[in-house]
């Protein structure tokens, strides 16, 4: 009731409190209204002061920021650098995954950075560390390249994002030569765009097959169809990173060799339909399990599943689950229309990048090279089993006899394609998941395989216009 | 006559049985996910997937690991970060919300109606729309690095909370204005009326405001992610829990993830249990006078 009255009074343009005031003794009203005015005046003043303060703070902050951030190399500075009598103070921010900054796993990143500092007496480097997994670099660094790490680790599929955000610098000179001379061509290509090298690679990144030696023999693992006839196999079909391997096996291509954006994705036609039909049969096989939500690893643990497809990140878990029966190997082939076709995984690399907004690019590039050097890769391998990619290092006995290294490198060399990182690749992922789900839940049948394959192909080449 | 009563009884009984069965089913549906998470948090089998629906054996190790294995994902630290942020946010936003609500409910000024409309419209926009802008503003005033990240997060969660005054304002509107007027006549200032009359009469809504503002930092992921970036020392639990489900960690950390989810409900539950009694008190007593 009272609210209603108040509302009506307000509607008449006379606020409720005014009426209350009318009813109050004059004296109080005067004091009151005087008080109100006073408050208003005060608040106005306060507001002005506040605004002035924020503006000065804002300006001050901007000013100091600019001073701090762009120390244009003045001649005086350059002179200092030349005479070498004085140590140059440098602050570098380095980002890497938390495992590399973990004392229990060798503390690889800080150890290497300190070593680098010792090896360069001309610089007195203070390191600041941040946590950024290689796969997140694209999002995290490009969010604000000017306030990101000077040197960071990234997965090569992020390269276009980083280039577009001006968050990664081309590497030239000695370091580029080092990258070219110490890595296989495929790895060099994985960090190159238009002939420029953008990072110092330190490992390969792909997936392969783990299997239980008590279930599958050395002969069995060469063909997936033989495997599913003998034991259970889990494959993450509904994950588009894995899905393409079947299509690529039968001659389907992504951007020709992965670098020609204009060529588009070619998953259609008879070769694509043949794979779709193959997958429909494969999914219908009771020994085939779509590995979602960790079903594969759980099956490997309790022995019900004989093989899973995963990468080096699951090495320790698989090793623990299988013990002496542990096996890791490159991808098997599949039989399509009576012919054996080799499955091919997406492969990439992880590399060290330098931020173009960095104050001391010379030091940053030297550090990037150091973190990608054979010694650093060796330490990375011993502390965390990060498979090295330096060709010299891979020839050493201690490295080349490791089952994990063999599996990963054989996969990289023989049964993989470089995962395309052209921008048009962005539409591939969802289209692939849709198709995979259609196959798994039975929407895609032998009757409509051709039609569905073509619509998948169209979706993969849909640039959104 | 007798027949009629029995049939009425029977009818009532069947209706009751039906209602109770329905309620039981709904309760199970509602409670089950929570019970399942609690069960997973005590599961001894590793991995993110098990072939059996219920855990085969139970252990306390997931909790132990969560609080002792701090080298990769430092959960205790994240927990403390979030707790600190939540406490400050809770205090600041409660003050904001109550003050704004009081002004909107009791004071009459020119912009009042317009302001309320503006606030309503602003409230319709999703908060993360301004996320990147907020990040750059915080960076410009130097709050995006180091320990200032906590301050930045406190600001982000509490600064805009004044906009959410609608519920508290509605509650204040129900407190009779006669009480205020009586206080004014006794010479009270507006502030005294607010602190001595309105606040003591509004315990339920204060509890509600405190709880919702305390919850914010525990649940928010997107702002924490954008503002913390690589500052792992200042991660909140939401980022930590998300990390645990990434492909590198999920196999080892899945059960710990469930344990973490259970743990974050503890401070919230404690706060609620502590404040619950004020829910009951509410308006009883004071209005009679």
Could you characterize what this model shows?
The complex is a heterodimer of chains A (465) and B (289). Chain A has helices at residues 2-11, 16-23, 26-69, 75-83, 108-119, 137-143, 159-164, 173-182, 185-190, 224-230, 240-249, 269-284, 295-302, 315-322, 361-371, 374-384, 391-394, 397-400, 403-414, 428-440, 449-460; strands at 88-96, 123-131, 151-155, 192-193, 196-197, 200-205, 207-212, 233-235, 253-254, 265-266, 288-290, 307-311, 326-329, 333-336, 339-342, 345-354, 416-418. By secondary structure, chain A is α/β, with parallel strands linked by helices. Chain A folds into three domains: 1-36, no CATH class; 85-205 and 349-400, D-Maltodextrin-Binding Protein, domain 2, CATH 3.40.190; 207-346 and 417-460, Periplasmic binding protein-like II (D-Maltodextrin-Binding Protein, domain 2, 3-Layer(aba) Sandwich). In chain A, helix 5 links the parallel strand 1 and strand 2 (123-131). In chain A, helix 12 packs across helix 21 (449-460) and helix 13 runs parallel beside helix 14 (315-322). The radius of gyration of chain A is 31 Å and the shape is globular. Chain B is mainly α and 289 residues long. Chain B starts with a helix and ends in an 8-residue tail after the last helix. Chain B has two domains: 2-62; 64-288, MetI-like (MetI-like fold). The longest helix of chain B is centred in the first third of the chain and has 40 residues, at 2-41.
Question: What topology does this entry show?
Answer:
The complex is a heterodimer of chains A (465) and B (289).
Chain A: H1 2-11, H2 16-23, H3 26-69, H4 75-83, E1 88-96, H5 108-119, E2 123-131, H6 137-143, E3 151-155, H7 159-164, H8 173-182, H9 185-190, E4 192-193, E5 196-197, E6 200-205, E7 207-212, H10 224-230, E8 233-235, H11 240-249, E9 253-254, E10 265-266, H12 269-284, E11 288-290, H13 295-302, E12 307-311, H14 315-322, E13 326-329, E14 333-336, E15 339-342, E16 345-354, H15 361-371, H16 374-384, H17 391-394, H18 397-400, H19 403-414, E17 416-418, H20 428-440, H21 449-460
Parallel strand pairs in A: 1-2, 1-3, 8-11, 8-12, 16-17
Antiparallel strand pairs in A: 3-16, 4-5, 6-16, 7-12, 7-13, 9-10, 14-15
Chain B: H1 2-41, H2 61-68, H3 75-106, H4 112-124, H5 131-140, H6 148-159, H7 166-174, H8 177-185, H9 190-201, H10 203-219, H11 222-228, H12 237-244, H13 250-281
Helix pairs in contact in B: 1-13, 2-13, 3-6, 3-7, 3-10, 6-11, 8-9, 10-13, 12-13
